[in-house]
Amino acid sequence: MTQLIALVASLAGVASALPHHAVRRQVSELRDSYDFVIAGGGTAGLTVADRLTGAFPDKTVLVVEYGEIEYAPGTFDPPLTVWGGAGAAASRWAFSSLPNLEVDNKRGVVFAGQVVGGSSAVNGMFFDRPSRSDFEAWDQVNSPEYASSEDKWDWDGIFPYFQKSVTFTEPNAETVAEHGYTWDLSVYGGETPIYSSFPPFLWADHPVGRAAWSEMGIRTLTECAGGDKEGLCWIPISEHPETSRRSHSGLGHYAAVNETRTNYDLLVKHQVIRVVYPEDTTGSGPPLVEVRSRNDDRVFNVTANAEVILSAGTFHTPTILQRSGIGPASVLDEAEIPLVLDLPGVGSNFQDHCGPDLAWNYTEPLDLYPLPSDMSSDPDFAAEAAAQFDEIPARGPYTLAMSNSAIFVSLPNITADYEAIVSRIRDIVSNGTASSYLPPDHRDDPRMIAGYEHQLSVLADFFENPEAPSLESAFATGTSARAISLHALSRGTVRLNLTNPLEQPLLDYRSGSNPIDFDVHIAHLRYLRQMVTTPTMQQYGAVEVRPGADVQSDEDLLQHTKDSFTFSFMHPCCTAAMLPEEKGGVVGPDLRVHGLDGLRIADISVLPLLPSSHLSALAYAIGEKAADIIIREWSEDE
């Protein structure tokens, strides 16, 4: 029995009874001070804590986590019998956005982990990486200001941390022969107890989707985690290769090390309210960390001797900063919070993957077995599936997560009109109208305007690149697909709730506020609907039902896009972006907050642009690189 199996068995018990050496639940259990204080025990935060406590056994680290230690089931675990249904899950926040004017005043819904392990403990377990082109774009938006920085965030600067952050296990020969999995082991190579693997089971209609995409002319890639991602990909999932249980940072970066790290404390069920700089001393940190107990509302300060690292995620990192008086001056003035530092990028630049859907019916029998419907219609099959999941190694349907196949296609390979779309992007930059698509309080701020125009120019180049994915669509089973736009041009906000600043922030997606986004959505949808007309789909009499054969004009496709629009595919990012301060940035390449001493950010909020991937693997890599930067700097000081 592996260590992971034992850890899963223990975590399946009552969380409060677990014998965790590092866990703390009240202020009386804390030390007088800590060298490093990390706000947020999620994907990146626990990665940083693990690496710092390992590298500096004489330095103390405190992680303050809003949630509790919980067992985190996979997206399809027993006793569920409905694949893709809403089953038992670890604790999470559910956010509902403000009404979106450009999408018929609809509201977006997005989830985030409220548990030790963060969103890695509640996500869909899709474990892909961005493309090389994404990091070239990241490097471009930070040029020329950071060209000489020691800390590079281009592909070569981040790729080693993807390798370090995960242990990939090759499938056995029987599984490969059955499903045709391909991979390149050289792009992996880590020994971290964060696991990825291919499941031994796929639904019987999974090959239908892959065959349709192949018939559309999409090239099939051997491996998509090594930088080349334009094509049809096999995607590993974040599960242990023997147990098929979810692998997340609460296991790999906390439970796996906590018994041996006497310098590692984890304070659960506590909220970091703000960081506090004494008056006129923002240049001489680190700040105090103000913390609230969720049990009795007691508020107290924690002292950090070295630095404070915010790793509370896309929604809560900017909220902590805003409560600290660090953020857009107009927002803080309205909230009656004394201004410490005017950084308009805090809580701005909000982005997420979004898009419309496509659906079809089969008019000929889909004579394939097994399908998800067999879990509910065949009790014997469901019982056998549950028994297979408890075997070592696990087998059967419960070894699945959400999906294992996806296409990532560039705009030049989607539409001949890509040049017209790119020209429209460049036109609004050159004629000065781009600023009109920003949130109202940014339209007169030269920093936010300069940053947005620079991002649009970089994205125009990106959309012209035939190797840079613009569209994602995943398939596992069924009769629907999503046309997911990977690089939105619109920018939203995450702002304090003025009624109760300690509660969850207000999200404003502002999807479609830059109307060129709808041009991209329509191009994606026109392309993806070709699936239904492929020979493989037609073999089963596939008929498009949504948007439907009578929906052909751009006007009608626009309305379908709004009618079926998903605001979030659970990949929110970019609200404390790594950009120069004069372009609306919040952190530099060393992840230090502009203008503040002793304060860094290490989570997915530092992305300047959405990547061509889901965010879990990238969050781990950011945590690994952040830890390396911090370790290097403090090692040099000793």
From TrEMBL:
One of its GO terms (molecular function) is flavin adenine dinucleotide binding. InterPro entries: FAD/NAD-bd_sf (IPR036188), GMC_OxRdtase (IPR012132), GMC_OxRdtase_N (IPR000172), GMC_OxRtase_C (IPR007867). Residues 313-327 form the Glucose-methanol-choline oxidoreductase N-terminal domain. The active site is at 571 (proton donor), 614 (proton acceptor). Pfam families: GMC_oxred_C, GMC_oxred_N. The keyword rRNA-binding does not apply. One of its GO terms (biological process) is secondary metabolite biosynthetic process. Gene3D superfamilies: FAD/NAD(P)-binding domain, Glucose Oxidase, domain 3. Keywords: FAD, Flavoprotein, Signal. FAD binds at residues 115, 272. Its cofactor is FAD. Residues 1-17 form the signal peptide. Coiled coil: none annotated. Belongs to the GMC oxidoreductase family. This is Related to alcohol oxidase.
